[in-house]
């Protein structure tokens, strides 16, 4: 039996917030930051819902390295 994703609750809160605010991301920044904080508490690959942030961070690192 698979374990529940540790950041699933925060991901669901983002979806609820976006739906309630006509998908205006700026109105959900606090909820998005909660998910980022959750993702930061777990090792890479532990949370499927964090994979988008992990990919974003990898791309940001690549860009920083390329600009040096």
From TrEMBL:
Disulfide bonds: 7-38, 17-28, 39-50
GO cellular component: mitochondrial intermembrane space
Compartments where found: Mitochondrion
Coarse class of the protein's main subcellular location: mitochondrion
Pfam families, alphabetized: CMC4 (PF08991)
Keywords for this protein: Disulfide bond, Mitochondrion
Family (UniProt): Belongs to the CMC4 family.
Protein name listed in UniProt: Cx9C motif-containing protein 4
Species per Swiss-Prot/TrEMBL record: Vombatus ursinus
